[in-house]
Each structure stands twice: as C-alpha cells, then as structure tokens.
From TrEMBL:
Organism the protein comes from: Undibacterium pigrum
TM stretches of this protein: none
PANTHER family: PROTEIN SKT5-RELATED (PTHR46430)
Keywords, sorted A to Z: Repeat
Protein name as catalogued: Sel1 repeat-containing protein
Matching SMART domains: SEL1
Entry-linked InterPro entries: Chitin_Synth_Reg (IPR051726), Sel1-like (IPR006597), TPR-like_helical_dom_sf (IPR011990)
Highest rank taxon of the organism: Bacteria
Length: 206
C-alpha cells in the first residue's frame, strides 16, 4: 500500500513538472517510475525526448525506445484484460502517436475497450460511427448503440449528447434536461453552460 501511494505521489509530481516544462525535476521521477514498468511514465519520457528543452536534449532514438517500452507494456496489460490499455493503444493508432497510424487497428482496439465497459471508448466509438471517421462508413445504428452504452455508464459527454437529442424538435425536453443536468453534475462544463443559457432565456421570456 505504501509503495502504491509513493508511486502515485511521484507521478503527480512528475506530471506537474512536465506541465511546467521542468524536465530537470521530471526526468529522475519518470525514470524511477519507468523502472517499475508504469506505462504512463514511459510515454512521458518518450514525449520529453521527442521535444527536448534546455534541461533535456532532444533525442529521437531515446524517444523511440521509450515509445517501444510503452507499447510493450500496453499490450501486456491488454492481454491481462485491461480496457484502459486498449483505449490508449487505439488512440495511438488513430492519431499516429509514437506508432504508425493504422485506423483499422484503432477501431479494433477501441471496440475491444468498449466491449469491456470502457465508457470513453464507447463514446468515442459512437462519434466514429456517427461521422464515418477512422475508415468507417457512417452507421446511425452503431452510433446509437455505443452512445447508449456510454450513457448507461454515465459518461458525462455522452449524457449531454443524449440530452440534446431529446431536446431537438421538442421530442422530450424534460427528459433531455435530466440527462444534461446529470452531465453537469458530473463536471461536464459544456452542459453547465447550456443549462445557464436555458435559465437566462427563461428569465428573459418572463
């Protein structure tokens, strides 16, 4: 338990230092965490060496090594059933982050993560099917299936999106507002702004 808390604290400090581009302090923390085979530390090291700054020289070879370690650890976690690792690998394939872009594999791993109950993957898949991204042909049925799955797990943006659908054409505004309120309660600021806009509009009408 103590070890877990220590690694969490180290990661928090490392991420804060990275956010300030303070690579001098982030580097030793990330190296210790990477030695413990923590994927997030490996990918942060890859980013660091890819960019470089006054504290850490840019080194594409080291960046590639750390990306390789990151993907190795992700794939091992995927074999162990980790949905979050599947989502991260899918994202890397979609956007070509540290790996060659492969939309087919991106969809494969998004779907794997979504099928294991990863709400972010479910919502992302619904968007892919809606807009026909990642080499997919737009499919409203698949879009709604994955959106519904994400809503059931109370993914904030999915709730907001679902709520807007109810609000359209006066389909069921009260139900729509319930979804949007729940989204706002879960911290999705766009939903909060929408509710504020509705409130102001109602006051102006009165």
């Amino acid at each position: 338990m103590t070890k877990q808390l220590n690694t969490q604290d180290m990661m928090t400090q490392a991420l804060a230092a990275c956010g300030e581009l303070d690579y001098k302090h982030a580097l030793p923390l990330l190296e210790q965490l990477a030695a413990l085979e923590i994927p997030e530390a490996c990918v942060r090291l890859a980013y660091m060496y890819a960019d470089g700054n006054d504290d850490v020289a840019k080194d594409e070879a080291l960046s590639t090594i750390w990306y390789s370690k990151y993907f190795f650890l992700l794939r091992r976690q995927i074999q162990e059933g980790d949905a979050g690792a599947s989502y991260k690998l899918a994202s890397s394939y979609q956007y070509g982050n540290g790996i060659q872009c492969d939309e087919k594999k991106a969809v494969e791993f998004y779907t794997l993560a979504a099928s294991k109950g990863h709400s972010e993957a479910q919502f992302h898949l619904s968007c892919l099917w809606k807009y026909g991204w990642c080499g997919l042909k737009a499919n409203p049925e698949q879009q709604m299936y994955w959106l519904d799955q994400a809503v059931r797990l109370e993914h904030p943006e999915a709730l907001y999106t679902f709520g807007l659908m109810y609000m359209q054409d006066d389909f069921d505004k009260e139900q729509g507002l319930r979804f949007i309120r729940r989204s706002a309660e879960l911290g999705f600021w766009v939903a909060g702004d929408y509710l504020e806009m509705i409130s102001v509009s109602q006051k102006n009408q009165n």
